[in-house]
Amino acid sequence: MNAENDIHFLDHNEASLLVNSIPDLKHKVLILLMLDAGLRVSEAVSLQFGNFDFKNQILCVKSLKKRKASKDFANRKIPLSPRLFLCLADYSKEFTTIDSLTYLFPSPDNKRTHISRDAPYKYLKRLSFSHLNIQNLHPHALRHSFATSLVATGSNMTEIADLLGHQNLNTSRIYTHIPKERLQKAIAKAANRNGDRNSFFLNFFGFLFSKQPPVVHIPNQSKALIVGRTSELANISELLSKDVNVILFGQYGTGKRLILDSIKTDKKILTLDDTASIKKSLIYILLFLYKNDKEQVKTLLFGNIEQDKIETKLSRQSVGYLCGCIKSTVQPKEYILKIRQFDDITKQSLKVIDQLKDTFVILTCATEISITKAPFFGNFEKVEVKNLNRLQSFELIHKLSAELTIGNHYEMYRNHIWDQTGGNPRAIIDMVERYKREPFLVTETIRAVTHSGVIRELDCSYALVILIASLAVMRYMTSELDNPGLRMIGGAAMILLILTRAFVSRTKRTVI
After folding, report:
1. 143 in active site
2. Which is the catalytic residue, given 166, 398, 416, 426?
3. Yes or no: is domain 3-174 CATH 2.60.40.10?
4. Which of 103, 190, 227, 328 has the highest local Cβ count within 10 Å?
């Protein structure tokens, strides 16, 4: 029998089930040291607080293996996972005094020593027999889980050996084929716990093992958030290469700013984030230019004085002077001026940017542009950013659903998100992040999560006018109906009808 066939490890759901079932912080820290840091049981029980660099979130482990080893392998540094670091922080509150020699797991009988290596075995055995349905649950299975997760995420053998404290790379190589031959089987076992159950208790702890279709395990692709925007990106890049000003517009959540930040162009880009404090923004643009490729201009204007003194000098100048400095510092259309949000721009900022419009190629975005600002965009190319279509939405959902292990509910999961969001990328991201907070995704859980952020607002102004006009007609119906009370109601409605035009014009937003 091959040695690797005897390797037992926990899949993602089993590991989460184990950690979430431990109420005691001391036991949770002990388990996470083996599960998230790959420590041997003897290394975990003998740790002292001096082994931790909490500032840099590093664990330094001195190997207790009784064999000859180089210093590098005898002492290894392991990054602390976020959940292990937070558990350690909470667990440390249970100690009255802590120094570098304080044992993390002191013996109940003698605080000067640590618990025995048998304690973790006994605790895991009690957990396994009490309510967990995890086969071969023992301390070394946790270490194997750490190692297989490193292999599955693409770590090389040298990195794995360093983290595990293996002096011989061949010792680490026993894990290399596990994701290929057994990891999918381990993942498939999760489906038996993720399927629909007769009760929440059975669903959570997974006592039933009815056969389910293979699960859909989605690898981590969280960085790939630009989906379905190929044509927009190409169009914008082409326009910018021709020195054409561009504005992206579309409803909230369509990813306009994400597109802005993903534009690839040969031109140099200046970003204007703060349009409220336009003078300060102009100063920072000048300081950036003077510090980078326009340093010679700074020398000519100010000599060799320090940057902070230049900032002081510029802060005393007017906005018009600063605009003139910028125009004399750069060549026309040499830079792209990227303005991330144009919706709430002030009148003063609009006038300033109008002065710079011929100096820079301007790239910006907005949800809505009022009709009063429309003349500014006369020489802009308008690019509309719409919601994603169904296929594009499914692609984004797939890429965002990192580390979600979903049973035979995957089709329902993505269709439900599509129905709730209508393809709005921001809403899709919100829903997927909400699902990631659930330990298991079952039918009830999927249907319970909803999103209302992209429901269109209805313009009720026309209905309001019709209602008031109908009431005004009552004034002329009094003689027919012989009801004097209608005259007062109709008169009040007529007054409201006269004021309606001014009221509607103030509340209605006219957009381009």
Report:
1. yes
2. 166
3. no
4. 190
